[in-house]
Design brief:
Structural class: mainly alpha
Largest sheet: 2 strands, antiparallel
Strand content: 5-15%
Distance between the termini: 35 Å
Number of domains: 1
Low-confidence stretches: none
Helix content: 55-70%
Length: 118
């Protein structure tokens, strides 16, 4: 299995696990949750439905990153001025970077709201 597929698959599985966990815990979450923080602490509140907005944004971001990972020929063009020794190496490196980026995005977006769920 290619490394970028493993990393991207991990980010998708983490998001799926987070979504299932949120669906299970959703009825027990308070109706009003903090949604904005400043240096003085919480200064913005909103509905618990904002938690689903995070999931939706995460899905959209992963979808577009996934398109670039799965169809790199359309995303990276045919130019021959890559820093790597070959076009294949250049595409492979960019796929790995994008899959790591997708993992970081999932961890940040899911981790931010985990405090309200627990």
């Amino acid at each position: 299995m290619k490394l970028h597929k493993l990393i991207f698959g991990t980010s998708v599985l983490l998001l799926l696990g987070y979504t299932i966990f949120l669906a299970i815990k959703f009825p027990s979450i308070e109706e009003i949750i903090p949604i904005h923080y400043s240096s003085e602490g919480t200064d913005g509140f909103g509905s618990k439905l904002f938690l689903w907005l995070e999931v939706g944004i995460n899905v959209i971001i992963l979808f577009f990153i996934g398109l670039v990972i799965w169809y790199p020929q359309k995303a990276f063009g045919e130019t021959a001025d890559y820093l790597e020794t070959s076009r294949e190496n250049a595409i492979k490196n960019r796929q790995i970077i994008l899959s790591v980026l997708s993992l970081i995005i999932v961890l940040i977006l899911c981790g931010v709201s985990l405090k309200q769920i627990l």
